Reverse transcriptase zinc-binding domain-containing protein
Amino acid sequence: MYNNWSTVYDNDPAGTTIKTLCPHLNDARRFAPYVSFWLSQSLTGHGQFGQFLYRFGFSDDQTCQCGHDIQSVHHLRFDCPLTGRLRYHYSLAISSCVNIIDRTKMESAN
Ligand SMILES: [Zn+2]
């Protein structure tokens, strides 16, 4: 059953945002117990992100406030200089988690 589910995950054209954050099914499954309003927006890309707002006609501009041409979840999570401080504090918090449950909770809150 897992292999079928993994094949569907890999080949489904939907879910492009979650696949940039969680390339493999197991990467995504670890968040299941901790799904929240904010986590759902981040994993799906359906939230207050320039790329989403532009795509669905809620905004005529998808640029990031830092000047990057597309404000995507991936950009905010990994590249945006405006979220650099958050990434730094997040990495410090993650490094202090000694067990996998606490670490997964921290990662799901990201
Ligand atoms: Zn940016």
